[in-house]
Design a protein that fits this description.
- With 313 residues, the protein is of the alpha/beta class.
- The chain is 42% helix and 16% strand.
- It has an 8-stranded parallel beta sheet, with helices on both faces.
- The longest helix has 23 residues, at 290-312.
- The chain is globular and about 55 Å long.
- The two termini are 30 Å apart.
Length: 313
Amino acid sequence: MDGAWKNALERVASAKVAILGIPSDCGAGLIRGAAFGPQALRPALLASGPLGEGVVDVGDVVVVPHLLHDEMVNERQKAACRTALGLPIGFPVSPLSIAERVIDQLFILNPTLKLLVIGGDHSTAWPVVAALDRHLNEPWAIVQPDAHTDLLPERLGVKYCFATWAYHANELLGRGGRLVQVGIRASRHDRAHWERTTGVKQIWADEVRTRGEAAVIEEIVGHLRSLGIKAVYFSNDIDATDAALAPSTGAAESGGLSEGFIRALVAQLGQSFRLVAADLMEVAPPIGSPEDSRRTVAVGASYLRASLEALLA
């Protein structure tokens, strides 16, 4: 296994897409379990067919499950964790910080590399955003299927977590509608509030049902084109999908999006823009019954397959 992983790393420089797992749910809410997402989703993805030419799996980020981001850890603790993990002096120790460093290094090895990331709770999208912002030199945007906005500036004093990552991503993008959220339906504020106060563009789940899936996809593409967007990061929270289809997640919500809509959306983004990264977040196999887990992982694997095909398009 170790030899196969090292062989994969040697192919990064010529690869088209790298698969990276971030098995951390330290940034989640009250219900954990998304740390087991990569472990369940990888075999399901492989069972769906070959990964394709130019795709390498670089493995998982090392996770100390008690840590989240290095800005929350004192120097003494960082030194202790580096010793325990066998990491060099100055190397980050928390999953979000390690992931950001790893993605930076992947882009150094291969500037044209695209990413397929398997989370993890949705805080694990933050290192992807931070690294992409340094790497890209063209107008880019994020399309985020999600039941929740994740637009809090902080939660319980924590800057980066499942409920805040999108706020900081939106600030990094410069607002202006470059963060598009689709499937929202669980929020203390309405769409007008979020669009007015943060400058995001939202399409709520009931709008998708009322207006039709094809029309919504066309609107998203048209909106991004009107902004001059060239590159897109597709950040897919499994709870955007209706809870009846994908119940094994920390905050499942009824009245959500269909599996076919999510797959069609990422496929169209891959055709219309340069899809530079895609992810699947918040799949939590331990939550619910074995049948709940099986169904959720199957849906998740179909999303990863659709995302991989769009990245390779």
